[in-house]
Amino acid sequence: MSQGVIQGSMREAPLPDIIQLVSQGGKSGCFHVHQEAAKARIYLRDGRIIHAVTPANEGFEALMDVALWLEGAYHFEEGPVEVPVTINKPNASILMELGRRMDEWRVISQKVPSLELYPASTLLPGEAPRGVNPREARLLGLCTGYYSVAELAELTEKPVVAVAKDLYGLVLAGHVALKGLRSGRPPKPEAPEKPLQDLVPVSVLLARPAEALPEVPEPAPEPAAALLPKPGPTALEDSQRLVKLINFTQRIAQASKQVLPEQHHELVNSLQAKATQQILSGEGPDAVKGLALAISRAAVEAGCDGNLVRSLNTQLKALFTTR
Fold first, then answer.
1. CB 32 within 8 Å of CB 72
2. Residue 278, Cα to own-chain centre: how many angstroms?
3. Cα 247 → chain centroid
4. Same domain membership, residue 186 and residue 152
5. Cα distances (Å, whole numbers) of residue 221 to 112, 214, 218, 231, 258
6. Distance of alpha carbon 44 from alpha carbon 87, whole angstroms
7. How far is residue 84's CA from residue 86's CA, in Å, rounded to a whole number?
8. Is residue 98 part of a domain?
9. 48 in a structural domain
10. Which of 40, 48, 188, 225 is deepest in the core (most CB within 10 A)?
11. Against a cut of 0.70, is the pTM above it?
12. Is the CB of residue 315 less than 8 Å from the CB of residue 322?
């Protein structure tokens, strides 16, 4: 690589803005991006993004890995590029998606600040989680403090952003706490089904002498208490919880309107109304989290200035921090 070095911090100048600036000049070269021990390379040829590499991925997915590096630094070295073309999307759509992922992660990282933390359930033995969807409930069963956020993504074979988003909801609901050290034990795996080849055909069992057949013990009668329906939340508790969640969506909408121009206020109202309907249909904290992310995403898609979007995210961050 030759001369023509551009460098900076992603906190001071967002990477998508710098890539767009360099691409408009039709330059060829490589962006070297690093955050702590993690490193990435993003290659441009004649201003077009053609390839990216991280320790875990390459191509478009590697570029999306960089969206989680909010505190990273970068430098661009101009020069000829000899790498395979693994990214064929237009720069505009790539940078919009990269910026959207970064804005989304800024909100998520308020509750899940690092992928190296260890989520642990705060529920008492036998206590059932409230206000979580089935996907979050399955993830909650793996939160024993043994696996980190990144390891949970590998274990469930899901994108790390998707896992972090579900953990965001679980932390917000008070069902999970994030710890800095590994603790607990790995979750017990579900008992595998007995292979078909180990099953004895009915005809063989019937042909055996009676004394060769295994005795099947009669099930012990269940205690009468076990037959009684378990108490659930009262209507008053549910009503109070819904009011709190809906009030919080109003605070999100008000904070957003303080930052966004008036022409976007109707959009905020529409998104808040949608979140309210989701809360009433049982989505709970997930709808509140989704509202903040949706408003931030809508501001980006509406073409709001980068500084304005960052100010919006700061307001939302403060709101969630002081909740």
1. no
2. 19
3. 24
4. yes
5. 46, 21, 9, 22, 63
6. 10
7. 6
8. no
9. yes
10. 40
11. no
12. no
Boundary (domain end) residue, out of 61, 89, 117? 89
Residue 303 CA to residue 260 CA, distance in Å, equals: 12
Q: Are residues 134 and 79 part of one domain?
A: no
* Residues 244-286 pLDDT 10s: 888 888 889 888 998 899 888 989 888 988 888 888 777 778 8
User: What are the CA-CA distances from residue 279 to residues 147, 204, 244, 251, 274 (Å)?
Assistant: 30, 56, 10, 15, 9
Is residue 223 domain-resident?
no
Condensed to tens digits (0 to 9), the pLDDT of residues 90-117 reads 999 998 888 888 888 888 888 998 888 9
Number of domains making up the chain: 3
Residue with tokens 């630094």: 73
Cα–Cα distances (Å) from 130 to 97, 119, 249, 283, 320, in that order, read 33, 18, 19, 10, 20
* Residue 68: count of CB within 10 angstroms of its CB: 20
Range of the domain at 36: 5-89
First to last CA, the chain: 49
Q: Does the residue 209 lie in any domain?
A: no
